Fold:
Amino acid sequence: MKFIQLNKIIICLALCLFIFIPALRAQSIAPDIEKKLNEIGESMAKATLAGDHKILLKNFTDDVVVMPDFKPAIKGIKELTKQYEEDKKMGAKYHSFTGNVEKRWQHGDEIFERGTFGMAVSTKASKHPQAYYGSYFQIWERQSDGSFKISFTIWNLDFNPFETD
Structure:
Protein backbone atom coordinates (compact mmCIF):
# COMPACT_ATOMS: atom_id res chain seq x y z
CA MET A 1 0.00 0.00 0.00
CA LYS A 2 2.78 2.45 0.94
CA PHE A 3 4.61 1.49 -2.26
CA ILE A 4 1.59 2.48 -4.40
CA GLN A 5 1.29 5.84 -2.61
CA LEU A 6 5.02 6.46 -3.06
CA ASN A 7 4.67 5.76 -6.81
CA LYS A 8 1.81 8.28 -7.05
CA ILE A 9 3.93 10.91 -5.30
CA ILE A 10 6.87 10.24 -7.63
CA ILE A 11 4.61 10.51 -10.70
CA CYS A 12 3.17 13.80 -9.42
CA LEU A 13 6.65 15.20 -8.81
CA ALA A 14 7.78 14.12 -12.27
CA LEU A 15 4.77 15.85 -13.83
CA CYS A 16 5.60 19.03 -11.93
CA LEU A 17 9.22 18.91 -13.05
CA PHE A 18 8.58 18.20 -16.72
CA ILE A 19 5.31 20.01 -17.39
CA PHE A 20 4.48 22.70 -14.87
CA ILE A 21 7.90 24.15 -14.03
CA PRO A 22 8.86 24.92 -17.67
CA ALA A 23 5.48 26.63 -18.09
CA LEU A 24 6.21 28.79 -15.05
CA ARG A 25 9.57 29.78 -16.52
CA ALA A 26 7.94 31.00 -19.73
CA GLN A 27 8.68 34.68 -20.24
CA SER A 28 6.20 37.34 -21.17
CA ILE A 29 6.84 38.79 -24.59
CA ALA A 30 8.11 42.34 -24.90
CA PRO A 31 5.68 44.72 -26.65
CA ASP A 32 8.22 45.49 -29.43
CA ILE A 33 8.50 41.76 -30.23
CA GLU A 34 4.71 41.37 -30.20
CA LYS A 35 4.49 44.27 -32.64
CA LYS A 36 7.22 42.76 -34.85
CA LEU A 37 5.47 39.37 -34.99
CA ASN A 38 2.11 41.00 -35.75
CA GLU A 39 3.71 42.95 -38.61
CA ILE A 40 5.25 39.76 -40.02
CA GLY A 41 1.86 38.03 -39.78
CA GLU A 42 0.16 40.89 -41.64
CA SER A 43 2.87 40.84 -44.30
CA MET A 44 2.47 37.07 -44.71
CA ALA A 45 -1.32 37.39 -45.04
CA LYS A 46 -0.91 40.04 -47.77
CA ALA A 47 1.72 37.92 -49.54
CA THR A 48 -0.61 34.90 -49.40
CA LEU A 49 -3.42 36.88 -51.01
CA ALA A 50 -1.02 38.24 -53.65
CA GLY A 51 0.45 34.78 -54.35
CA ASP A 52 3.92 36.12 -53.49
CA HIS A 53 5.74 33.03 -52.27
CA LYS A 54 9.12 34.76 -52.19
CA ILE A 55 7.92 37.01 -49.35
CA LEU A 56 6.44 34.02 -47.52
CA LEU A 57 9.61 31.95 -47.81
CA LYS A 58 11.71 34.72 -46.23
CA ASN A 59 9.82 34.17 -42.98
CA PHE A 60 10.80 30.52 -42.50
CA THR A 61 14.05 29.00 -41.22
CA ASP A 62 16.04 26.82 -43.63
CA ASP A 63 15.15 23.72 -41.59
CA VAL A 64 11.46 24.58 -41.11
CA VAL A 65 8.98 21.76 -40.53
CA VAL A 66 5.46 22.36 -41.85
CA MET A 67 2.73 19.88 -40.88
CA PRO A 68 -0.29 20.51 -43.14
CA ASP A 69 -3.55 18.57 -43.06
CA PHE A 70 -3.96 15.57 -45.35
CA LYS A 71 -0.37 15.74 -46.63
CA PRO A 72 3.00 14.47 -45.40
CA ALA A 73 5.23 16.79 -43.39
CA ILE A 74 7.22 19.31 -45.39
CA LYS A 75 10.80 19.42 -44.11
CA GLY A 76 13.11 22.25 -45.07
CA ILE A 77 12.84 25.40 -47.12
CA LYS A 78 13.57 23.57 -50.39
CA GLU A 79 10.58 21.24 -49.91
CA LEU A 80 8.38 24.18 -48.90
CA THR A 81 9.46 26.01 -52.07
CA LYS A 82 8.46 22.94 -54.13
CA GLN A 83 5.05 22.90 -52.41
CA TYR A 84 4.47 26.57 -53.26
CA GLU A 85 5.46 25.85 -56.87
CA GLU A 86 2.98 22.94 -57.01
CA ASP A 87 0.25 25.18 -55.60
CA LYS A 88 1.05 27.75 -58.30
CA LYS A 89 0.79 25.06 -61.05
CA MET A 90 -2.60 24.03 -59.63
CA GLY A 91 -3.70 27.65 -59.97
CA ALA A 92 -4.23 28.12 -56.24
CA LYS A 93 -5.65 31.57 -55.58
CA TYR A 94 -6.48 32.82 -52.11
CA HIS A 95 -9.55 35.04 -52.02
CA SER A 96 -9.38 35.68 -48.28
CA PHE A 97 -6.98 34.81 -45.52
CA THR A 98 -7.20 35.82 -41.87
CA GLY A 99 -5.54 34.69 -38.69
CA ASN A 100 -6.20 35.31 -35.03
CA VAL A 101 -3.43 34.86 -32.47
CA GLU A 102 -4.98 33.46 -29.30
CA LYS A 103 -1.82 33.15 -27.20
CA ARG A 104 1.92 33.69 -27.42
CA TRP A 105 4.55 32.80 -24.88
CA GLN A 106 8.33 32.82 -24.91
CA HIS A 107 10.98 30.49 -23.61
CA GLY A 108 14.55 31.50 -24.37
CA ASP A 109 14.95 32.37 -28.04
CA GLU A 110 11.70 30.68 -29.08
CA ILE A 111 8.21 32.10 -29.14
CA PHE A 112 5.29 29.71 -29.19
CA GLU A 113 2.04 30.79 -30.78
CA ARG A 114 -1.39 29.25 -31.14
CA GLY A 115 -4.44 30.62 -32.86
CA THR A 116 -7.15 30.19 -35.45
CA PHE A 117 -7.34 30.93 -39.16
CA GLY A 118 -9.84 31.17 -41.98
CA MET A 119 -9.31 31.21 -45.72
CA ALA A 120 -11.06 30.86 -49.05
CA VAL A 121 -9.14 29.35 -51.96
CA SER A 122 -9.84 28.23 -55.51
CA THR A 123 -7.78 26.24 -58.01
CA LYS A 124 -7.96 25.40 -61.71
CA ALA A 125 -9.93 22.28 -60.72
CA SER A 126 -12.42 24.18 -58.53
CA LYS A 127 -13.17 27.61 -59.90
CA HIS A 128 -15.46 28.54 -57.01
CA PRO A 129 -13.62 29.43 -53.79
CA GLN A 130 -13.95 26.97 -50.95
CA ALA A 131 -13.71 28.24 -47.39
CA TYR A 132 -11.73 26.54 -44.65
CA TYR A 133 -11.15 27.32 -41.00
CA GLY A 134 -9.10 25.72 -38.28
CA SER A 135 -6.43 26.06 -35.63
CA TYR A 136 -2.66 26.37 -35.78
CA PHE A 137 0.43 26.21 -33.59
CA GLN A 138 3.82 27.54 -34.59
CA ILE A 139 7.25 28.23 -33.17
CA TRP A 140 9.15 31.40 -33.95
CA GLU A 141 12.92 31.25 -33.60
CA ARG A 142 15.06 34.31 -32.90
CA GLN A 143 17.76 34.77 -35.55
CA SER A 144 21.29 36.08 -34.96
CA ASP A 145 20.25 39.51 -36.29
CA GLY A 146 17.39 39.73 -33.75
CA SER A 147 14.63 38.97 -36.28
CA PHE A 148 12.24 36.04 -35.96
CA LYS A 149 11.44 33.24 -38.39
CA ILE A 150 9.05 30.31 -38.21
CA SER A 151 10.82 27.02 -37.52
CA PHE A 152 7.75 24.82 -37.03
CA THR A 153 4.08 25.11 -37.89
CA ILE A 154 1.17 22.73 -37.74
CA TRP A 155 -2.47 23.34 -38.51
CA ASN A 156 -5.66 21.40 -38.65
CA LEU A 157 -9.01 22.03 -40.20
CA ASP A 158 -12.07 21.88 -38.00
CA PHE A 159 -13.63 19.49 -40.53
CA ASN A 160 -12.57 17.07 -43.28
CA PRO A 161 -13.16 18.71 -46.67
CA PHE A 162 -13.00 15.31 -48.37
CA GLU A 163 -15.85 13.86 -46.32
CA THR A 164 -19.13 13.70 -48.20
CA ASP A 165 -22.63 13.73 -46.72
Observations:
- The CA atoms of residues 50 and 77 lie 20 Å apart.
- The longest strand covers residues 93-107.
